[in-house]
Amino acid sequence: MNKNLPHILSILIVLGFTLTLSAQDDLPTDYLSKEFHAGRRDALRKLMPDNSVFVVMAYPTRTFSNDIDYFYHQNPDMYYFSGYKEPQSLLLIFKEEQKGTDGSVYKEILYVQKKDPRAEQWTGRRLGTDGAKEKLGFSYAYNGEDFKNTKIDFSKFDKIIFDEFPEDVPNSSRDNADLADLIEQFKSKANIPADYTKDKRYDTRLFRDLTGKLREIKTPEEMDLLRKAVEISCRGQNEVMKAVHPGMSELEVQGLHEYVHKKYGAEEVGYGSIVGAGANGCVLHYMENTKTKIGTEMLLMDVGAEYHGYTADVTRTVPANGKFSPEQKLVYNLVYEAQEAAFKILKDGAKWSDASKAARDIIAEGLLTLGIIKDKNEVGTYYPHGLSHHIGLDVHDRGFSQTLKKDMVITIEPGIYIPPNSNCDKKWWGIAVRIEDDALITEKGYELLSAFAPRKVEDIEKMIAEKSALDNFTVPKLKSAEKKAF
Ligand SMILES: [Mn+2]
After folding, report:
1. What is the structure's pLDDT at 486?
2. Which of 95, 169, 241, 336 gives 463 a disulfide partner, CB atoms 3.0 to 4.6 angstroms apart?
3. From the CA of 203, how far away is ligand 1's center (Å)?
């Protein structure tokens, strides 16, 4: 990074140069369409109560280091209802058509980041108001700074529906229309009291309810992307299985997964990749991935590709040396049976908790039989998490229905984790197994979207025995790592 560049840039601008970033070529062609996002706004409007307004705020930016931000991830609700991926933005959706003082008629308004060639040279292209109209299909799009002067009269609405305000929103003194300003202006225009949760007119619960109702049921357009995210994640698991050996590090395995994701065009991971060898697998959200040699223990890999916003959530647990030990196999098959039992419950109309119970019962019974627990009530010691959650734009996606419905996509992820020094025979110590698959609920049952990656012991061993293009991939030893004598 060159800190002198802004100065050079200002000189260029003063000299009359104009910097314009041309449109990009060779972009993916399968993004969600503007018709999809407009359709979601219409679906929301149908659920909104009469005379209400629905307000969506972008996520704040976050500092990674000094003047460098973390890669920006849009608030999934903003993306779902608009397709807009940039920060410092605000979306208003009205139940009924509104009439502006200038005679305009509108039912939604998007406030976006202003076009700014100088900022775009540093932090990337901006869509601007023209882009929001042309690419996202908004009839009314304004720069964030215009929100301050809007004539919208919030006092006339019976309900103002918005999500809880994000915390620690950065407020830049150089930007008078960043998210912090938009939120402040919204609070003041809508007269939102400090204790708004006590006033039913200001409804954050309804925001969650309505977005949950919509987002828990996937549309065909969303399924195209989600299917792709899940298949890509499985392909990543498979390539890792072919390449893995006990001398590899956790970081190297993580890199392989993520390389395969990116090779297929998945921009991100939907959550920090979890790659834990042996007892590290017992840490449920282990993300350090710092063990330098996997060794002959089991390797738990919970890694999900995010493709155009939609994230998979797939876990495979494999022996790095290619063969399950007898103890590893017993624990693994118990988790496998629990998963199978849960799958059998899945279908439109089934009770979600029945699937959880079926899996938990199998694990409790099995741990008792293996002598790892003395009483079924101790099952939570080794299976401390739930079975299942929605996936979609969030890895733990929105949705509150206790009944499974057609076109929901959920994970089924039982696990058994036996940390060292557990109160059982030490031959079990350090074994951690989770198998996690992604299932689309159908009318009569389910479709296993993650069937591309093997789950059975013998199929995994077969996959690990396969050759990998990476078997011959080496990099030179680092000069800087040579030991120096002082
Ligand atoms: Mn999960």
Report:
1. 62
2. 241
3. 29
- Same domain for 55 and 186, yes or no, is yes
pLDDT digits (tens, 9 = 90+) for 15-49: 444 445 566 779 999 999 999 999 999 999 999 99
Q: How far is the CA of 322 from the centre of ligand 1 (A)?
A: 25
Asked whether residue 261 falls in the same domain as residue 195, the answer is no
Q: What are the residues whose beta carbons fall under 8 Å from the beta carbon of 383, sequence distance 6 or more? A: 360, 363, 414, 415, 416, 417
- What global pTM score does this model have? 0.93
Per-residue pLDDT at 162:
98
Taking the centre of ligand 1 as the mean of its atom positions, its distance from the CA of residue 386, in whole angstroms, is: 9
284 C-alpha to center of ligand 1: Å?
Answer: 10
424 alpha carbon to ligand 1 midpoint, in Å? 27
Taking every pair of Cα atoms in the chain, the longest distance, rounded to a whole number of angstroms, is 81
* 104 dihedral zone (left: phi>0; alpha: psi -120 to 50; beta): beta
Instruction: Give me ligand 1 centre to Cα 316, in Å.
Output: 12
- Please report the pLDDT score of residue 68 as a whole number: 92
Contacts with 452 (C-beta within 8 Å, 6 or more apart), sequence order:
230, 231, 234, 235, 238
The answer on 226 and 196 residing in a single domain is no
* CATH code of residue 375: 3.90.230.10
For residue 242, report the distance from its CA to the centre of ligand 1, in Å. 24
For residue 438 the two structure tokens come to: 């992604």
Asked whether residue 68 is assigned to any structural domain, the reply reads: yes
How close is the Cα of 434 to the center of ligand 1, in Å?
A: 10
Nearest to 310 by CA among 267, 262, 273: 267
Among 171, 190, 215, where does a domain finish? Answer: 215
Based on the fold, state whether residues 243 and 177 are members of the same structural domain. Answer: no
The reply to whether 86 and 234 lie within a common domain is no
CATH of the domain at 85: 3.40.350.10
- pLDDT at 1 (0 to 100): 47
Look at residue 275 in the predicted model and tell me its pLDDT: 97
Average pLDDT over residues 261-273: 97
Q: What is the percent of the chain where pLDDT is above 70? A: 95
Distance 270 CA to ligand 1 centre (A): 10
Number of domains into which the chain is organized: 2
How many A from CA of 411 to the centre of ligand 1?
A: 6
User: 426: buried, middle or exposed (CB in 10 Å: 19+, 13-18, 0-12)?
Assistant: exposed
Q: Which of 185, 215, 245 is the endpoint of a domain?
A: 215
Residue 254 — pLDDT band, cuts 50, 70, 90?
A: very high
- Are 141 and 287 part of one and the same domain? no
Helix (H, G, I), strand (E, B) or coil at 136: coil
CA 450 to ligand 1 center in whole angstroms: 13
Predicted confidence at residue 482, as pLDDT, reads: 77
Task: Please check whether residues 382 and 259 belong to one and the same domain.
Answer: yes
Whole-number Å distance, alpha carbon 408 to ligand 1 midpoint, is 15
Q: Are residues 428 and 380 both part of a single domain?
A: yes
What is the predicted pLDDT for the residue at 284? Answer: 87
Domain with 225, as residue range(s), is 220-472
pLDDT (0 to 100) of residue 485: 65
In a domain, 458, yes or no: yes
